[in-house]
Structures
1.
Amino acid sequence: MSRILTKLLWLPVAGAGFLACSSSGSGPNAPASSSGSGTSCANDALLNVKLGPLAPATLPLTKAGDKGALQFVLVDPMTPNPPSQDANSWTLQVLDGTGKGLMDATLSFPNDKAHGADANPWMPKMGHGSVTPMATNNGDGTYTIKNLYFTMPGVWQLTVNAQSPSASATDSTMLSFCVP
């Protein structure tokens, strides 16, 4: 079994949002693994980028909302880091237009039917999704996202909607990442 080196690298790619990828092999241009021992998103056509061996992300990672009204920040803890098959748990901070934590926001995870997603999270290359996660308000402007369940390695997308308690600010973002 080959040793899999992983790193979480977040890049904005064609509006897709955060991107995390993995690669198997030993060099920066190692070929994608085709065995059951791992996977590579490095050469995935969806990504349109080629990345080498990667390792866990340094948090926090910030992504502006689609409307620019809110920001979404992935913070510690992220369990596991990088994301993996089966159960994952993330902590997401939602910031308002002034950069302050948005207290008591409502988070939801809608299906992105406009892009063919019948579930959320969604695996675009394979055309299937997983169980919709749940968000718990931590009372400090952060939200724990639980039940992030990824059934197989590869590129996954998670669409997150956030609405302020007064409904004066709403925004959404898509987080794209790779499960090694």
Note: Residues 122 and 129 are 4 Å apart (CA to CA).
2.
Amino acid sequence: MDWTFFEDKLHKRMKEEHIPGAAVAVSKNGEIIYEKGFGVRDFETKRPVTPETIFGTASVTKSFTALAIMKLAEAGKLSVTDSVRTYLPSFDIPGVEPIENIKIHHLLTHTTGLAPMERHEEFNQFHEHVAYLREEKHDLLGKPGEFFSYSNDAFLLLGAIIEKVTGRLYRRYMTEEILYPLKMNRSTFSIEEVKKMCNVSVPYVYDEEKKKHEEQDWPGLGNYEVGGGIRSSVRDLLKYGELFLSEGKLGENQFISGKSLKKMYHPHIKVDPDTSYGFGFKVTENYHEATLVEHSGGQPGVASNFGFLPEENICVAVLTNVSGATAGDIWLEAVNTVLDLPIETKRSILPEKEMESEQNIDRFIGKFSSKEGQEVTIAERDSSLTAELEGEIHSLKIADEDLLIIEETEKPIRFFFNKKREAWAIFIGMRMLLRENEKQ
């Protein structure tokens, strides 16, 4: 297996995206077939990245939390069909009636009906977040189970449920019952432990205006550690992936049943025509006769992607130490290399033909935003559509009646229309953003 082309592309990408350091590891049939560090873990010492270098994993953490929930379900401590209120009696969301309709399943799949919310990383105890959900008015998309929209604020309630059921702190339970048995000895939720470890990356953000990297502190996250708090190495992540590929076995012991694990990457709800979401995993079926099970992560100074292909017994982990790096593309290029596919092969095939733009393009125009901070403005310029994202203007093409494509990146923007054919929301970057005049 020749990794030359993969490495050449990665070196080029690191230069273009200002990635200081990256680590990649691949296993097949339980054996590591490729692992390598690229670049430096910090600019000050110029020490190189290795497969043991610790990075942030960000939202890769979500599947670990989902695994803990499935273990508790298998032990009869809870069921994913239980109402959240069974375990959190004070849980409430204004406008959701009856509140008992929100199940643990909806937290796992980001389908509670909540639009993205303002983050409160200062909340360190779960009761603070439960009160925040109960006492303030939040934008709603629809009924529980009706729409998918990534929600860190809903997902973190799983940590509160774990604490309620086990009587142990979330972090302590996860460390003792998940990380320790998997022998993930270079993985931790604790920033204090990270500071005591060797071979740790420094997180960076690249400032486009100043043309330089700025060092970041490790984010404390507060309650959001439930969906983003693990710091780890690519080697440790392969140990985690092997749990799924061995159908729940750790050596001779059955850590969890294969049946429970398969529920985690069952396609519970569609994200787009080719991709669904399970419990803490994105799932792309029929990828050249294989299934891609993966999750990305992003925080200040972190871009990550981890996942596996169950039919092929392949696991891949990618970690970097800069915000905004396309770790998911690096991950797929590694997968394509192992599968002997053209390295540019994409997860999904977008519509090839652009629809006639003279149709009523007014239906797309508007400003869409969320309380989490995302903002997209669709406008018409010289008879063409553009999108303004993060201060930059991008050209769009109409790919379908409800779908626009950003030409430079091929990123889709899906529209939701009411009966009057007015757009009330868009779906971009795993989140639904409401039209400004639709917000509560």
Note: The first helix runs from residue 4 to 17.
3.
Amino acid sequence: MQTTNLDGENSLKLKEGLSSLTNLIETNNGKLNLIRGIIEIDQPNSNIYKTNGKISINDQKYLFNNDNILLRSATLKNIDFVYGIVIYTGKDTKIMNNNNQ
């Protein structure tokens, strides 16, 4: 992922998906509408380098952090596709909070 639009750095940053969730998606033949769960995440804040949360699906908990999220305005490189969940929207996005400081 490239974050030039966010922090001015043009070096690629490695991001990782949650392999256990990828396995769950593949087990359901990519039918995302069959997967139900709850997401708990930090309150919106301006720190673009810190995010923590968990996804609970069928009594399983999957922890995630900043290494597992993509921020608005970031550019993906070297990847064919991404499964994603929108976690912050509107004025609560990291970029909007960061610009308001």
Note: The longest strand covers residues 52-57.
4.
Amino acid sequence: MQITFEGECCEDCILLLANGECGTPEESDAHMAKIQNIWTPEEVMHMCAACDEECEAPFSWRPCECCESPLGGSRHRFVVLG
């Protein structure tokens, strides 16, 4: 597989991609629903957290490229494989 998209995502997205949850089950389900409204089912299935082990997670005001949240915060690298 190759990388078809590489971007930066918010704290909730990276937790969801890496661990399958980002808070309570309800919060995780709601956040995943946001992602599924933006990306195709195949893209969602092939999303991966791609931060380095020593991730510094720089602060950014740019929208999250995974869930499109406009809130500022830490941004982490993620990829979509295809």
Note: The chain has a mean pLDDT of 95.
